[in-house]
Amino acid sequence: MRGVLVVHAGAGTWRNVDEEIIRKVLSDALKRGADVLESGGSALDAVVEATISLEDSGVLNAGLGSVPDLTGKVSMDAGVMDGWSSRAGAVAAVTYPKNPVLLARKVLELTDHVLLAGSAADELAARLGLPKHPGPSERVRKRYEEVLKKASSGDAVFRKSFELAKKLGYLDTVGAVALDREGKLAAAVSTGGVILKFPGRVGDSAIPGAGFFANKHGAAVATGIGETIMMSMLSLKVVNLISEGYLADTAARLAIQYHTSAHGRDTAGLIVLDYRGNAYGAYNTQAMPWGYVKIGGGEPVISGFKKS
Ligand code: GLY
């Protein structure tokens, strides 16, 4: 096995989206991550590289394309985990870095901690000289104005961001999992969170076990409504199923089935990879574009678009 990389563009309704653009974004991310694996890089290097590519696309809800919170500002969560060492790094509610996944990796590599949040994490990003986020793009600002026009005003908005997100057509979070030639697994995730979230809200993407997890048997990244994913510890659950002997596809289907029975439909998706190199994407939303590539095993496979 020379390596496998899996990426996703977020679970959601995926209404009014140009499928060709998203296919291109996914295949660019697969190519960048696969180049890393092919040249002998680690699974962790590959998932970070693929996630940076997704963050920089500007059309997904992460990095440059992050959706606005209730005040029109962008704040982001991200995490990485190395399954071999069982170590994770994560950041929550950060505004400074263009690529929160890079800052999450720095937390893993440079500190004894797992999760840094808010302004102190932003200061670390600045001190490390990481590229700065330019703020909400024109596209994101326009979206915010449209969404606010459609949303009811005042307190109702505070309490209804999930309903609104579903009604308005949401897409959520990016992520990657990989297996390298040494048989090591890793996971990375990055998000702008739920549209119109309360400022200061943190989702599953900053929490190991919830939004991401990896060990020596499997790696997983979750996407969807973070509050439900945190309550079911979805990524840990699916990796535990793999550790008990299930293959990636059965484990992913079972985990999403449990999640749906506890939290309802339209709440979550997962990409999963097991130590044998089996890759799978499962979701209870209308769509979750995702893809994988096996190094030396032919062309990338991309699927998960909404059926028209
Ligand atoms: N799944 C990303 C979030 O809820 O923040």
Structure at a glance:
With 308 residues, the chain is α+β, with helices and mostly antiparallel strands. Helices cover 37% and strands 21% of the residues.
Number of helices: 10
List the uncertain runs.
none
Beta-strand level of the residues, as a percent range?
Answer: 15-25%
Widest sheet: strand ordering = 4-3-2-6-5-1-11-12
State the secondary-structure class. alpha+beta
| Biggest sheet layout | 8 strands, mixed
Shape, principal axes of CA atoms: globular
CATH topology: Glutamine Phosphoribosylpyrophosphate, subunit 1, domain 1
Characterise the protein shown here.
The protein is of the alpha+beta class and 308 residues long. It has one domain (4-303): Glutamine Phosphoribosylpyrophosphate, subunit 1, domain 1, CATH 3.60.20. Helices cover 37% and strands 21% of the residues. Strands 4-3-2-6-5-1-11-12 form an eight-stranded mixed beta sheet. α1 runs antiparallel to α2 (43-56). Bound molecules: glycine (GLY). Residues 77, 172-173, 191, 193-194, 203-205, 223-226 line the site of glycine.
List the main descriptive attributes of the protein structure presented here.
308 residues; alpha+beta; Glutamine Phosphoribosylpyrophosphate, subunit 1, domain 1; eight-stranded mixed beta sheet; 10 helices; 12 strands; 37% helix
Topology (SSEs and partners):
Elements: E1 4-8, H1 19-38, H2 43-56, E2 76-82, E3 87-94, H3 100-110, E4 115-117, H4 118-127, H5 138-150, H6 155-159, H7 161-168, E5 174-179, E6 185-191, E7 212-214, E8 218-224, H8 226-232, H9 234-243, H10 248-263, E9 268-274, E10 279-283, E11 290-294, E12 301-303
Parallel strand pairs: 3-4
Antiparallel strand pairs: 1-5, 1-11, 2-3, 2-6, 5-6, 7-8, 8-9, 9-10, 11-12
Helix pairs in contact: 1-2, 9-10
